[in-house]
Amino acid sequence: QVQLVESGGGLVQPGGSLRLSCTASGFTLSEYSMNWYRQAPEKEREWIAGIGATGDVAPYPDSVKGRFTISRDVAKNTVYLQMNDLSPEDPAVYYCNRNVFWGQGTQGTVSL
């Protein structure tokens, strides 16, 4: 059974950093591409990062380019999202995704 469990969200000040984790079970990361999405209140869900089965990273969208980095640890079956220089435009629920499977999301908040 495929499961994705996110963790690492929290409250930071502008300019701060968060590192999100997505621990996968029921499959091996080295066989699937993985993605991070986020959804802010009253906004559509936005794709923000992707990493292929071979570890290749997709180009980031402009909204996070240069600030967010996706990575993975196949031994731990975990995908990470390092988020730096967070701004008040970044607060959202962050989701881990594989195909049709989604995690429960983790909240990232930036204090004003």
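the 2nd protein, sequnce then structure:
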Amino acid sequence: QVQLVESGGGLVQPGGSLRLSCVASGFPFSDYGMSWYRQAPGKERELVAHISRNPEITDYVDSVKGRFTISRDNAKRTVDLQMNSLKLEDTAVYYCRVFYYKDYWGKGTLVTVSS
């Protein structure tokens, strides 16, 4: 079965960095685009970044452009999100997602940006 397991969240000060990782299993990873979403308290879940099966094709929500970088390692079956220059408003639970005949989500990892 499809499994997505996120890690790397934590508490960081504004301006700091974190690297999230998602390990995937149960589907042909290299054939599918992967996404990172986030959900802040009291807000709807939003798409943060997407990487195509071609790792050179990426897309970001405007609010993270220039600060976040999504990447994938098909050999390790991982998709990472490097987050730099973190802001208070980046505080959220971050989820990994794949559409493989249907939506699959990880359980999420909490990122808290606070001074």
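The mean pLDDT is 97. The radius of gyration is 13 Å.
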